[in-house]
Amino acid sequence: MSSKSIKQKRGGFFGLNFDQIIKYFFGGNAIGAVVVLLLITVFLFREGANFFPQNWQSVELYRKSGKEYVDNIREVVNDHTALSRYLQDLRERQTRALLKSKSLEETNAALADFDKFNNAFDSTVDDLRSLLGDLTDATTAIEDKFKVNKNMIEERSNLLKAGKKEEAAKVTVQDIDLKKEILPIQATFPAYQEKSAQLKKALENLTATLPVLPVKELQPRLEKFKNLTQQYLAGFPAVEQNLKSWDPEKPVPWYKAISTFFGTEWVTNSYWQDWYGLMPLLVGSIMVSFIAMLMAVPLGVCSAIYVSEIAGAKERNFIKPYVEFISAIPSVVLGFFGVAVLGETLRWLSQQAFLKWVPGFPMTERLNAFTAGCLLALMAVPTIFSLSEDALNNVPRAFKEASYAMGANRLQTIVRILVPASLSGIISAVLLGFGRVIGETMVVLLCAGNRIEIPDFTQGPAAFFQPVHTMTGIIAQEMGEVVRGSIHYRALFMVGIMLFLISLVINFLAQKIVQKYRISIG
Amino acid sequence: MKFKKFFTLAFGFAAAASVAHADTLVIKGSDTLGAKLVPQLAEAFKASHPGASFKIAAEGSATGFAALLNGTADLAMASRRAQMTEVSEGTSKNINLHPTIVAYDGIAVIINSGNSIKGLTKKQVEQIFTGDIKDWSAVGGKPGPISIYTRNTASGTYVDFSAMAMKKRNYAGSAQKMAGNEQIAAEVGKNANGIGYVGIAYIKASGVKALAVDGVEPSIKTVQSKAYAYSRPTFYYTNGAPTGLAAEFTAFTVSAKGQKIVQQVGFAPIQ
Fold first, then answer.
1. I want to staple B63 with a disulfide (CB 3.0 to 4.6 A). Which of A214, A408, A454, A480 is the partner?
2. In a shared domain, residues A183 and A322
């Protein structure tokens, strides 16, 4: 009987009692969060996944429209340009040497002979270059025609779907046979043969008599140039063979769609072929994050150790909120600070004579990976600091007491006992800080310099003072210009998916490390 | 600068919200036109058309075309013609891109005012921006690595310059992409080895000087006479012939009053 009397009566709100209302309120919010997250993830993957079929088509069209064929010839011209750059470099070296004792006018006069040689070398490729220009225009026209036609077909089918038969009949759709279209391109093969033979002859004649350089020490470089030219000429038959055996109908393997996405070229809105290669962006993002972590880890972890183990209550009450306050600065403000103040200051510093020993100094660009890295370090410090401090505080008091009881001093206790005991927590703090940094957009967009070229790592640490582009930066920069559903649009989503996966892996690792290596308390 | 645009945009939204029932013209596209010229035209236009309001976002011509194709703008500013693929993309979505020439512009090549170079040939400009030449000494200047500043890929100037000055070759990988004309001018002004390009309306920025190309200085006169190599028309694009407020604004822009503003801002008026 008593059980009946404590049973609550039904009624209230939609027949729910108070407890149930509370339960559904909180549960509903949790479900809402899960659903939103799920929707975002599904959207992200749905928009991005179509990239691969589209990219495959694009690579296939690259072959079928004859662009691939033309790029073989482009290679020959580009290699010539590379040799030309070698000569430019040689001129630069001579100028530097001559300027030590002469004025700029005298230097330019002394280099007149060399310039003549240089110009003569440059013009040897002119014929081939103009052929390449013609072929470029022709293949681009073929490709455009094909794409336009494809849009027309789409329009017609849209109209048919809408039941507008008359309008649909008006849309002119051509039957484009790419194989036939590119026959004139392939027909230029004899012209190529002739022009490359002329180029070969001209180069042989030209390099037979090398000019005498005003700077004697640099003469061996000119000899080397001759060798390089001979190597270049030796590659001609292979190119010819490639052109001869090139077949537009050869199927493009499916993995090309993926391998080009991990390629080293990100070229968009070009007159030639657009490529969506992740590498330059990934390298940029990782470099900037690496620099940031290099600074943020010691700062964050050491200040956490200080606050939790050494500082008195007064200091702690000052430092802790202060460091955590940094995370309240909006990233766009940090970015603006970087553009307006930090970049300029760093460059000024790098130009000081006493810092000349640092590799990469003086910096040529004020907006570079290092500038962005410095600012990102500021954003990572609060995360690393707070989480590391928590980890240190979670070490059981008994550990510390036991250590002191054994006669260890404070430094020994910190280094041998506390840090190892909380290492899993500190590592996950660092990982989460890394995750924070790699996903940051505004600072890198404003301060990293946005150069698409992968930094030149042959220069060693100097590479860190070069401008880079980042995954987050490219999305922010190119988002506005893409048409929904285009391959470029999908490529940006794919970059987003990669960022998502990176963050996911980092968070997963951080959690696993804490779980697995936590020292049992008790 | 980016922030300015951001504020224009934010202000536009605020304005749009407060006068939701009034006529609002959404304009997107070219930074060359949208950073200075179109806002000033809009101000003058508002004086004679009370109640009209504008939302202007200037982040590059491609963003304007994309917005027209996505149906999120009434009028697109463009410093280049629509590409063939953009036009056909439009027809497939039943959008007919209609151009109106509103002004002529020249793209000036600018360097730091401390640089001793006075002019370059077209060939040298091509070689520098494609990365064939990497050092100032190669064009007779003081040795130093050339820093290239270009617009970002959304920009019509980026595409136009590649066609007019670089024989449609790709930009050097070392080029740094900037969001707008003013940012390029600012970077070049602060980098002794910098080179970049801006619309002629922007050559008076501090610390930079415009180069003569093949001996011709960029100016409104040389652009108008087409003596300057890198001259181009700039456009408004609409879906079909402009209607309503867009038509009035376009008419105002090409009117004598509008063209006077065009000249004041530093563009060459249409004859």
1. A480
2. no
- Name the token pair of A296: 């943020």
**Does one domain contain both A347 and A222?**
no
Buried/exposed A496-512: b ≥16 CB within 10 Å, e otherwise:
bbbbbebbeebeebbee
HEC string of B119-163 equals EECHHHHHHHHHCCCCEHHHHCCCCCECEEEEECCCCHHHHHHHH
Instruction: Tell me which residue of A510, A137, A35, A468 sits closest to A292, measured CA to CA.
Output: A468
Q: Which domain holds residue A463?
A: 284-517
Q: Are A25 and A13 in contact (CB under 8 A)?
A: no
**pLDDT tens-digit series, residues A111-148:** 888 888 888 888 888 888 888 888 888 888 888 888 88
* Amino acid symbol at A226: K
Among A454, A481, A487, which would you mutate to test the B interface (most chain B Cβ atoms within 10 Å of its Cβ)? A481
Instruction: State whether A477 and B177 contact (CB < 8 Å).
Output: yes
pLDDT tens, residue by residue, B50-88: 888 899 988 888 889 988 888 889 999 998 888 877 888
> Which residue from B221, B213, B91 is spatially nearest to A170, judged by alpha carbons?
B91
In this structure, the answer to whether residues A31 and A122 fall within a common structural domain is: no
Q: Does B187 touch chain A (CB under 8 A)?
A: yes
Same domain, A37 and A103: no
A88 and A29 in one domain? Answer: no
Averaged pLDDT, B23-33: 88
Three-state DSSP class for residue B116? coil
Q: Domain coordinates of chain B in residue numbers? A: 2-104+233-265, 105-224
Subunit contact A480:B142, Cβ cutoff 8 A: no
- DSSP designation for A310: I
Per-residue pLDDT tens over the stretch B100-146 = 999 998 899 999 999 988 889 988 899 899 888 888 888 888 888 89
> What is Dmax (Cα atoms) for chain A?
118
Please answer yes or no on whether A148 and B154 come within 8 Å at the CB atom. no
Q: Is the pLDDT of residue A94 over 50?
A: yes
Tell me the shortest Cα–Cα distance from A392 to chain B, in angstroms: 42
Displacement of CA A447 from its chain's centroid (Å): 14
Give B-chain residues touching A480 at CB under 8 angstroms: 59-60, 62-63, 66, 154
Q: Is the pLDDT of residue A168 over 80?
A: no
Q: Which of B1, B4, B169 has the most A C-beta neighbours within 10 Å, making it the best mutation to test the interface with A?
A: B169
Structure tokens at A2: 């008593």
Report the predicted TM-score, pTM, of the whole model to 2 decimal places.
0.80
Residue A460: CATH number of its domain = 1.10.3720.10
Reading the block at residue A415, the tokens are: 């280094």
Classify domain B105-224 by CATH architecture.
3-Layer(aba) Sandwich (3.40)
At the topology level of CATH, where does B2-104+233-265 sit?
A: D-Maltodextrin-Binding Protein; domain 2 (3.40.190)
Residue of B85, B145, B179 with shortest CB distance to A148: B85
Instruction: Give me the residue from A89, A92, A450 closest to B176, CB to CB.
Output: A450
In this prediction the ipTM stands at: 0.74
Is A95 within a domain? Answer: yes
**How many residues are given for chain A?**
522
Query: A264 in contact with B at a CB cutoff of 8 Å?
Result: no
Using DSSP, state whether B76 is helix, strand or coil.
strand
Are both A192 and A229 inside the same structural domain?
yes
B91/A152 CB distance under 8 A: yes
- For residue A263, being part of any structural domain is answered with no
Kindly state whether residues A361 and A473 are assigned to the same domain: yes
Residue A510 near residue A428, CB atoms below 8 Å? yes
Query: How far away is chain A from the Cα of B90, in angstroms, using its nearest Cα?
Result: 9
A324 and A290: one domain?
A: yes
- Last residue of some domain: A207, A227, A250? A250
* B146 → chain A, closest CA residue: A364
What is the number of structural domains in chain A? Answer: 3
Please indicate whether, in this complex, the C-beta atoms of A91 and B63 are within 8 angstroms of each other: no
Query: Is the pLDDT confidence value at B4 over 70?
Result: no
